[in-house]
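Quick one:
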Amino acid sequence: MNPYQEDIEKLYARLHSGAQGLAQAEAADRLVRYGANRLEKIRGQSAVARLFKEFTHFFALILWLAAGLAFFAEWRDPGQGMAMMGYAVVGVIIINGVFSYWQEYRAEKALAALSNLLPRYTTALRDGRAMQVPVAELVPGDVVVLVAGDDVPADCRLIEAFSVRVNTANLTGESLPKSRDTGTAGDDLAALRRDILNAGTSLVSGKAKAMVYATGMHTEFGDIARLTQVAREPLSPLQKEIARLSRLVGLFAMLLGVVFFFIGRMLGLSMWDNLVFAIGIIVANVPEGLLPTVTLSLAMATQRMAKKNALVRHLSAVESLGSVSVICSDKTGTLTQNRMSIRQVFHSGELLDPAELDGAEQLYDIMRHCHELRRVERDGQEIWQGDPMEVALLESLPPGGAVYPRVDEIPFDTERKRMSVICDTPQGRMLYCKGAPETVLPLCREMLGDGQRLPLGDDERDRLLGAHEQMTARGLRVIALAYRNLPSQPNHRESELVFAGLVGLVDPPRPGVADAIAACRLAGIRVVMVTGDHPHTAGALAREIGLAQNPLAITGDKLRILSDADLLLLLDEPDLIFARTSADQKMRIVQALQRKGEIVAVTGDGVNDAPALKCADIGIAMGISGTDVAKEAADIVLLDDHFATIVTAIEEGRAVFDNLRKFLTYILTHNVAELAPYIAFVLFKIPLPLTVIQILALDLGTETLPALALGAERPDHGIMRKPPRPRNERLLNWGLLMRVYLFLGLLESAGALAAFFFVLYGGGWHAGQVLGMHDKLYLQATAACFSAIVLMQVVNIFMCRHPIYSAFSRNLAPNRLIAYGIAFELGMLLLIDYTPLGNALFGTAPLAIEVWLFMVPFGLGMWLLEEGRKALVRRMAQRKARVSGTP
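Output:
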C-alpha cells in the first residue's frame, strides 16, 4: 500500500515519526540512508562515447573512407593534391561532429532546470522546534511548516491545514488553485488527493503542517524527471532523410568506384592508376559539402524564425516542424493566457458583460474586501499575490473606492466552500461573503434588484439557478457574492444574507488563437487539446476557439482503462479533446499518434508537459509563461507565448524542406558534371579533364554560398494551403534523380567536356597524345572544364529556385543572398583561373576570351531546355487538373 493512502497514525508508525518531526541525529542518519532530496541523473553514455558516436555514423564513415583513400593515394603518388583533399574532408567530419555533440550537450540541461524549480530552504520541525533546513537535507518522516507563497519541497501528507489552496499547474496543468485539507480521500493518484502536497507545487493561500513521505526521485516530480530522461527522443524526419540520403549516395559512389576500377583493369590501366581513378570516382560522387550546407541552411532558417519569435534549440526541428500533421496542445498558458478574468456577471436580474455593469457599488465592495491576497514586490513593482481568481476580481474593479478595516474573517475551507470577512464601514459592521453558489444561495433571504433589496422568492431563485447553468455551460468558474449588515450580537453571522450577484470567470484564450487554429485546419494540420484541466472548461474553450464544434472530452480516468488498440481507434474521432491527463498519459497519447503514422508536435509550458515535449517529433514550449523544464525539453521555444507563432514557424519549416530539395538539385547537378570527366578519362583514354583538387574547390568552395542562397528562399505562395508532407515522402525522390542525372547533369557535363576539348584542340592536341600534369595546355584545358561547370551552375541556381515554375516568374529582390552567392562564385573562379596562387593550388592556367565566349551558349541552351521542360510539366499538370476537376 502506498504511504499516502494509509491512515495518518499508520503513516507515523511506518515512518517512525510523529507530528513533532524527527530528532536532528535521526534526520542525519536517514539522509545517509535515503540520499539527498534532489533529482538525480540517470546514468547514460559517457561524454567520450557520445562524442565518438558523432564521428562514426554512416555518412561520417563514408567521408573517413574518402579521406583515407586520398591519403593513401598521396603516399603512393605524391604531388597530386590528394593530401589537401584528405585534410579538407577530415575538417568537414570534425566540424559536423563537434556541432552535433554540442547540440546534444545543451539538451542535457533539462535536468538542471528541473532541480532549480525546487526551493533551497524550508521550515522543518527538528528536535521539536522549527528551523530552516536545506531542501536537499529533507528526509521521509520530516515535518515541514508552510505558509502562503511557499514552494512545496517534497511529497507530503497534511497533518494540519488552514485555508490551504495549492497551485498545481506545473504538475497537473490545471489553471485554478486546488483546496487541500486533512480530510481522507479515496483517489489512487497522489496528485489528485486533497490531503497531499506534491513537490513542485506552491501554496497560494493558507497555512499547513505536513509530513514528508517521499523525497528526490521518489516523488511525483521525480517520476516526471525520470520520464523526461528515459523518454527516447525520436529521430526527426530530416535526420532520417539525411541518413537515408547518405547511405544511398555513399553506396552509389562506392559501387561506381568498384565498377570503374574493373573497367579500368579491362582497359589496361595499371593497378595504382586504377586505384587513383576509383578514388576520384568516389570523391566526385560524395557531396562533401552536403552536411555543412544543410547545417548552415538550417541555422539561417533558425535566425529567420527567431525574428518571428520562434527560438529553435535543435536545428533538425526546423524541417520537422514543416512536416507536422498533428499538434497536441496544452490548454493553460498555451491556448489561454494563464490568468483569470471576468467574462460575465449576473446582477439585478440580468446577465451582463463586465463593461455593462453600472451602479454595482455593493458588488464592488464585496470584491474589494473579500479576499486573502497580499501585496508583494517583484521586479521592482508591487503586485497582488495569491489566488488568480481573487486577483482577477480586484483587477476588474473601477479605480477609486474606499477600503475598510477588516476586524474578523471566516476563512475558506472545502466543506463550506466559501469565505467571509467582517469590516467596519460608515454604514456599520458589514459581512462580505464569497463562495460557490450552492453554498451561498441557501443563506440568502434577499437580493439586490433595481438598486433596492427585494425578497428572494422561488421564482427569483429559479432565475438565479438558470443564470448559473448558462454561465457554467460556457465553461465559466462561477462564484456568488453576498453581504449583510451585522447586528451587534449576531447568532449566526453567515445567515440572512443579501444576494449581490454571480460572477463568471475564465482563463481567456490568447488573441489570435482562433485564427491560428483555422490556419492549421486549412494547412491540413489537426489540433488536439491535451490538458490537465476540467473537461467542461476544456470543452468550452474548444468551442470558443473553433477547435471543436461538439467536443468529445476523454478524461485521464477513462484513458487509463483504454487498451492501446482502443486508443488508436479513439484517435480517429474528429472533435476529440483530452482532459484531466497526467504527464505519462500525455506521452502515451503522443506515442499512439506516432504509431498511426502522424508527425506530432506538442506544445506546453508546465513540468507535466516535459516528457511529452521530449518524445514528440517536435516539442514547442512557451518562452514567457513556460517553466525551465518545458523549455529545456522542447525543440522550439515561442518567445511571445503566442500559439499563432506556431503557424508562422510551420510555414518556415515547410519552406525548409522545399529549399533542401532545391539546393540538393543544385549540388547533385555539378556532381554529375564532376563524374563525367572521369568516365571519359577511362573510356576514351584522354587526359583527365578535372582533377580531384578541382572537385574539392567546387564542393567546398565555389558552390557553398550559392547553395546556401537556395536554402534561404522564402516560402512559396500557397504553401500553407497544401496538406502536410507524407511521412514516407523522400527528400531524394525519383523525379529529382531523373531531373539531375538524366537532364541537368548531362547538359552540364556536355558543356564542361566541350570546353575541355575546345581548348585542347585549339592548342594543337590530337587523340592519343599524352600531356604532362604541368603542361600549360593541359592546365588551361582543366581550367576550362572547371570554369564551364561554374558558369553553368550560375545559370542552374536560377533554374533550381522552383521545380516547375519559370525562373522569370520569381523576383530576385526577396533573396539578395543569390546575388551575393553568384558574386562570390565568380570571384573565386577568377582567383583560381587568373592568380598565380590559384593556378598553383588548383592546377589551372589563365583562359583566353574566346574560351569564355565558347561556354556562354551552353549555359543559355541549358536554361532554354529547362524552361521548356518546366512548361511541359505545367501543361501536363493543368490537363490533369481539368480531367480530375480539381482547381
